[in-house]
Design a protein that fits this description.
This protein is mainly α. It folds into two domains: 1-72, no CATH class; 74-152, no CATH class. 78% of the residues lie in helices and 0% in strands. It starts with a helix and ends in a 6-residue tail after the last helix. The model has no long low-confidence stretch (mean pLDDT 78).
């Protein structure tokens, strides 16, 4: 996913980008006749595009720094929230596909009447979280293939 400004620049100026499109417009209007002036305009436009893309990326880079610091932390309450979500999703998946159906089967076979209905839940919400976590796990597998060190 491109950051917002990157999408905007591509959407407005197409594949030629800001530099190519504005240069073409100025050439077509007869403003850029001198090749030296054209190079100066292109350089100024490139500098401007780099600045606005840098501003657009700043929040993402800040979040990466926050994630790195969280991962270094000794406390499980800070560094362990991602594994905690993973374990919670794993337990919920176990309950939904194994424990709950087996409990329903045993209750039916034994002709028991449970004191309360056996709880069920919306798997759509769980799968959204779980598939997101598995996607992150896939990224970690890629890191392992590339030899990224995880010893802290």
């Amino acid at each position: 996913m491109l950051p917002l400004v990157g999408e905007l620049l591509t959407g407005v100026f197409g594949q030629r980008g800001l530099v190519g499109s504005v240069t073409d417009i100025l050439k077509g209007a007869g403003v850029l006749k001198d090749p030296e002036m054209e190079l100066k305009v292109q350089q100024a436009l490139m500098d401007y595009e780099v600045k606005i893309r840098t501003v657009d990326l700043a929040p993402l880079l800040g979040q990466i720094d926050i994630n790195k610091e969280e991962a270094k932390h000794e406390s499980l309450f800070v560094a362990g929230w991602r594994p905690g979500i993973g374990w919670t999703c794993g337990l919920a998946l176990f309950y939904h596909y194994l424990a709950q159906p087996i409990a329903v089967f045993v209750i039916a076979v034994m002709h028991w009447t449970p004191p309360a209905p056996i709880p069920t839940f919306d798997m759509g919400s769980l799968m959204t979280i779980l598939l997101g976590m598995l996607g992150l796990g896939g990224l970690r597998s890629y890191e392992k293939l590339k030899g990224v060190n995880t010893n802290r």
